[in-house]
Amino acid sequence: MTSYLGIDLAWAARARTGLAALDETGRLVASIAVITDDEIADFVDAHTSGTVVAAIDAPLIVPNATGSRVPEQLVSREFGPYNAGAYPSNRSRPLFDPPRGETLCARFGWDPDPATAPGRGTSVAIEVYPHPAMVVLFALASVLPYKAKRGRGLDSLKVAFMSLLDHMERVCDEPLGLTTSARWEEIRSAVSSAGRIADLDRVEDEVDAVLCAYLAWLWGTGSPAMRVLGDVRSGYIVVPGSPSVPPARPVRARALDLADEFRAAVPSLTRREAERLAEIARERARVTF
In which element (H, E) is residue 219 found? Predict the structure, then answer.
């Protein structure tokens, strides 16, 4: 049999990680938020059996010493206008040397190569990113502003969060069975009754993990919509198709990578200096989403 697992993996070992498990039919059987790798292992042991297909929101393969990975560049070019660009990751950051996702794949025996088909005793993991997935699956012009950021109040966050839950029920209820899930009803209640932003924070990672589990289901059942941006050598991110509506902000034509643009403007910059400036620019461009 096959189990499907969604992991909204915290980059740091002390932050909260969301987990969600689906059974062989794709029904949601459990979801939770945990902290440690051992707690993740306990959940995996309790709620999966046989072949596992895991979809992880965190870098799995980070070969580059500096700058950003190929998949992050590809995602940002395609989904940046939807406010769904990707954060850069590289080995100069202690969090990615090695990345936590790589360590967990090795621990559980999951093959992170997207060219490896699951089945016949072969468990796999793919890297996913919920924001581009939401843009595609929910036909959004921009990502939903449900994450706590500067300038967002409780009321606006609750509206965005409830919209996210509504979209997930509309698109993912088959096969997840969200509308009949007791835990999903608890999550809905927690969002609607939240009196503080912290109340929303407590379920955010878990909800992201449920979406990741849906992506694991699409991948494991061979959905033709699933696209691999990048490869196992340079790193990759799997997205469930292409955007179907125009973005909220127009695409700005770009002939060069951002680092190359910096070097063209300031020829005295080294490649490493330009890549660092590009990282800062990308991070600041994403600060509102």
Answer: helix 197-220
Query: Is there a cis peptide before residue 98, judged by omega within 30 degrees of 0?
Result: yes
Paired tokens of 102:
């790589």
Classified as helix, coil or strand, 21 is strand
Q: What is the pTM of this model?
A: 0.87
pLDDT digits (tens, 9 = 90+) for 122-134: 999 999 999 999 9
The tens digit of pLDDT for each residue in 44-84 reads 999 999 999 999 999 999 999 999 999 999 999 999 999 99
Query: What are the backbone dihedrals phi and psi of residue 96, each rounded to the nearest 5 degrees, phi first?
Result: -115, 20
Cβ–Cβ < 8 Å for 191, 165 = yes
What is the phi/psi pair of residue 17, to 5°? -115, 130
DSSP 228-283: EEEETTTEEEEESS---S--SSPPPP-SS-HHHHHHHH-TTS-HHHHHHHHHHHHH
User: Under 8 Å CB-to-CB from 82, ≥6 apart: which residues?
Assistant: 131, 132, 135, 140, 141, 142, 143, 243, 247, 248
- Burial class (CB within 10 angstroms; exposed 0-12, middle 13-18, buried 19+) of 285: middle
Contacts of 221 (CB under 8 A, 6+ apart): 26
Query: What is the C-alpha separation between 256 and 251, in angstroms, rounded?
Result: 14
DSSP β-bridge partners for residue 229 = 237
* CB-facing half-sphere around the CA of 245: CA atoms within 13 A: 15
